[in-house]
Backbone:
């Protein structure tokens, strides 16, 4: 059965933009759009819906609708999409149960990877919040993660997020700010992923990720 996605935003232009983004860059078979919260909850509750993408024009509205979706459709992954001027807005949406945050300007390969990984949550994977990077974070071009290799290596989503940051030359503090983690927590994830990759330092870990096919160029 193909992947079904619901795109929800009260703004017509935003709905259209999200739909085009997903049709162009994500492996989604059916996309339904909704503008009314009650319509969204009815559609999500009827199922089967694999993924809901909620536009985030206002913090309170986004966090509230995420919580309500999680009640009527607990097996459905929820992503929020928008700008990132207010880190608190993102944190509230993630705390409400969203599995990730998608920037409007996210590179196409990261959009695809984010949607692929979010889809894993509907089958029971322990998915932690994901933040797709913007063009300014990706000087060497977009990276796609091979989910099958990730599973084979036993890497969690959070460990892959940290490894991507390591590959971009970010410090633990920088990675932590992007993922809403402390630098010490990032260091712990890095230590675990180094062990799983059989690496002793950052450079070797990134090299192993490419050599093993975990990281792919778009």
Residues:
């Amino acid at each position: 059965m193909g992947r079904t996605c619901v795109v929800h935003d009260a703004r017509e232009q935003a709905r259209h933009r999200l739909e085009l983004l997903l049709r162009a860059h994500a492996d989604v078979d059916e996309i339904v759009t909704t503008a009314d919260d009650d319509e969204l909850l009815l559609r999500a509750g009827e199922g089967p819906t694999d993924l809901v993408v909620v536009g985030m024009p206002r913090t309170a509205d986004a966090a509230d609708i995420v919580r309500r979706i999680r009640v009527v459709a607990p097996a459905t992954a929820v992503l929020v999409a928008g700008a990132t001027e207010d880190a608190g807005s993102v944190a509230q949406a993630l705390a409400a149960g969203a599995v990730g945050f998608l920037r409007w300007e996210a590179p196409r390969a990261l959009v695809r990877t984010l949607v692929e990984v979010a889809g894993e949550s509907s089958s029971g994977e322990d998915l932690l919040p994901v933040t797709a990077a913007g063009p300014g974070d990706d000087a060497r071009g977009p990276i796609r993660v091979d989910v099958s290799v990730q599973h084979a290596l036993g890497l969690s989503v959070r460990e892959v997020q940290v490894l991507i940051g390591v590959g971009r030359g970010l410090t633990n503090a920088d990675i932590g700010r992007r993922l809403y983690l402390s630098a010490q927590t990032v260091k712990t994830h890095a230590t675990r992923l180094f062990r799983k990759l059989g690496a002793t330092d950052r450079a070797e870990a990134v090299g192993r990720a490419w050599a093993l096919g975990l990281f792919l160029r778009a």
